[in-house]
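Task card 7
Instruction: Convert sequence to structure tokens.
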Amino acid sequence: MKRRLFLQSLAATATLPLMHGQLMAAPATQARLLVVFLRGGYDAASLLVPTSSTMYTETRPNIAITHPAELNHDWGLHPSLSDSILPLYNKGQVAFIPFAGTEDTSRSHFETQDSIELGQPLQGRRNLASGFLNRLASVLNKDKQAVSAMAFTDQLPLIMRGEIQIPNAGLSSITNSSVNDHQSKLIASMYQGQALAKQVDEGFAVRDQVKHQIDQMQAEDKAKEMTAANRNAITTKGFGQEARRIGKLMQQQYALGFVDVGGWDTHVNQGATTGALATRFNQLGLGLAAFAEEMGNAWNNTVVVVVSEFGRTFRENGNRGTDHGHGTVFWVLGGAVHGGKIIGEQIALEQKNLFQNRDYPVLNEYRGVLGGLFSRMYGLTPDQLNHVFSNVNSKDLGLV
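Output:
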């Protein structure tokens, strides 16, 4: 097999090893962090409904959420999340940060996603091969025992690229790898005695280890489904199934994780209490609740951050959807989270306060918010934080 084909297979089967070929065991740190990226720019005004804004229903005659679950006198939650996220919120394990986001105003999916994953200042020279989660992993591995990381994606995302090597594995496809055991042995034999031999061996070991764990989970899931069927329980699918697997792997092995979820670009027929967006919220919420359940006691030391590249226009468009916007709402979940509240700088949603007369403004810049969160979670020094987010004004919201 040619080395070019090997490298393609390596990417497809998620064999890049962490820490230059070292196969990690259980997390050395109790703290666990999962970043969930909603690609497409979700409509935050349908998730966290600004109930005190008189403009809301006026500017959204067809897609306004008219009966959200009340969170406080200013905000309500989309009713599709009443059975999944609302109970966690009421336990004080979920916080929402409205008016969050990046200073990037391009409204380009790809440009804004990249700038967020890089986590670098928009002005000046940027290192396009250095994501902020990789830099965080690098900082944590310098002065402490190994902190294992994993991107639960088919391709290694920009946020996980950088100075240390981090594996990636799309859990829904890893069991159907295009490289079988015989091919794996052939590839490994090609590199015996060469500089990459150890990395190749460790890479396949990561893949085989994850595949074995997923096979065990699938067997357990089938047993659970058979038991639950007698009670007419609903089995979560899609992201929910993926989230359970991620939860099990992070409980047992990984301290830092990343996963992305697509399908949030709702220009047409977005829906309101029901419809396309409501279905996506429901599935996402069930998945996050399943992740929390699967983490077991480790949930008490876990933080999940849900972000998106931008929000959407405050007004609905002519196709009963919304267009690319600016500010959005971040979610922060976990047993370690001081939740049950809407947090961060806020402003009344009036016409005069909209960004460029159309969008949520960004009052809680993401690097500052995450910098404050990481400092609390890991006790980062100013120099360490500057390595993760250079020249950032950390914003400590007391999330943990």
